[in-house]
Amino acid sequence: MSVTPIDGSVLVVNAGSSSLKYQVLDPRTEEVIADGLAEQIGEGQSRIKHWYRGQEVVVDGALADHDAAIAAVLDLFAADGVDVADSGLAAVGHRVVHGGRSFFEPTLINGTVRSEIERICPLAPLHNPANLVGINAVTALLPEVPAVAVFDTAFFHDLPDAAATYALDAAVADEYAIRRYGFHGTSHEYVSRKTAETLGRGYDELNQIVLHLGNGASMSAVAAGRPIDTTMGMTPVEGLVMGTRTGDIDAGIVFQLARVAGMSIDDIDTLVNKRSGLKGLCGENDFRSVLERADAGDESAQRAYDVYLHRLRRYIGAYMIELGRVDAIVFTAGVGENAAPVRADSLAGLENYGIEIDAERNAIRSAEPRVISTDASAITVLVVPTNEELAIARQAMEVAYGS
Ligand code: AMP
User: What pTM was computed for the model?
Assistant: First the structure.
């Protein structure tokens, strides 16, 4: 087999219900070779943005399903002279949202694993079926390349029982596997390990609070390398206020909407997951716009920001108590990495708790991990960019080859 530019690399696939994100990267050098996103799959007018070695192409056209999307992506590689099927691609890593109680480690995909992922689809009806479609489509086109599933819930599989258990009728919870699973685990693990590396400390020496603030948002408390709590629960809707999700709400609201507003369960699901959060409060889920509008005096954007921040601070306080001693508070993902005001405001006035942000350090923009607290701050505050694709690629290599 001839050596191609992607020889020895990993294809990372993140299949959503109507989208497909992918990246080809070399986990040894961390070099990203290709990156892309197919959107609005199955919706008539689809679009693929494909980036390969510095060149971006955008292709508009209909993609009937994920098989068609993956075939189209392979065609884009072929146009650049890369036959992915015969390229020496080392492995494929698939992000799978929900591992249920079955999966808590990256797992080599075979027929049995596929059936088990299918069996737990009811736990994540919006996500796992799409992940499975992605797995099946890539496997059909690249049958010889080892494929590994990396589960978003895995890092949290061993949450302490008290943190993982809802105070729901225990028999019902048990029958339907209702418990707190936690999500964004690949990111929380990557970032908390990177934090230890950045500080030159052992992972198991540090107690950390990790804030993954993107369009989806979650927080975790990691004690000596072991997560002891996280804000997302049975589904990714619990916890922090997000771009379009409510985060924590009173379950009674669901009954109220069904009984009084006559909404169906599907309508309420859409409301809670897609029409709420920042978008529900001010019409927009892009955090940059929320900040700009709030700065310009827009009341609904300011209110959305205040509600977002109130929830963040509540959980920071809770996790400080749960951890007892906190060594590091770490911000990551789109908002956490880029929005200095959110970092400053979420930790403002906590000097008595040993938290002191350095305004100049906080204002620095960089793609590197960095400390933003003062040297005198007892708790170190950092920004550590997440890299879920790299984490998935490394785990895929580890499972496929033990390296
Ligand atoms: P993610 O889901 O991690 O890609 O994060 C997406 C979110 O990060 C969106 O709400 C963006 O508006 C937000 N974001 C990206 N860059 C910035 C920035 N410079 N300032 C504020 N928010 C940002």
Answer: 0.94
